[in-house]
Write a structure and sequence with these properties.
With about 140 residues, the protein is mostly helical. It has helices at about 10-30, 40-45, 50-60, 65-75, 95-115, 125-140; strands at about 50, 80-85, 90-95. InterPro entries: HTH_MarR-typ, Tscrpt_reg_MarR-type_CS, WH-like_DNA-bd_sf, WH_DNA-bd_sf.
Length: about 140
């Protein structure tokens, strides 16, 4: 029996994630950030001055992935890292003026990317999809 991709939530979720990333990439490139950096920016726009560990816990990504992302963001002038005042092992990750100024345009770009992928959905369908996605994300956190 052949694998039916159209009935596989795992397969479809992967394809959807790629679609959102591509859609955001097209819009974010002109602003100077990548889709992989967007979650870090969102966390810092919510609460600037987090440690790498705090960001790691909030995003639930691999340590090495986050370390590489932060290095690229620092290189590109999106964040600055400074020593933690009381923990010699930790660094404070802060937004730069450049990334603070990007917030509104970046959020608009993400919204445009979302609208492109969810075009044709009626309002209640969109809300249902978001609710189902939140439920699936919550379930994934328990694994």
């Amino acid at each position: 029996m052949a694998f039916d991709r159209s009935n596989s939530a795992t397969y479809l979720a992967g394809q959807l994630a790629k679609g959102f990333a591509r859609s955001l990439q097209q819009r974010a490139a002109t602003l100077g950030f990548s889709p992989g950096q967007f979650p870090v920016l969102v966390e810092l726009w919510q609460e600037d001055g987090l440690t790498q560990k705090q960001i790691l816990d909030r995003l639930d990504v691999e340590q090495a992935t986050l370390a590489n992302t932060l290095s690229r963001m620092e290189r590109d002038g999106l964040i600055a890292r400074t020593p933690h005042p009381t923990d010699r092992r930790a660094q404070i990750v802060s937004l730069t003026e450049r990334s603070r100024a990007l917030e509104s345009e970046a959020i608009d770009a993400a919204s445009d990317a979302e609208n492109a992928l969810l075009g044709g959905f009626r309002s209640f369908e969109r809300q249902l999809m978001l609710e189902y996605m939140r439920m699936a994300v919550e379930n994934a956190r328990k694994i």
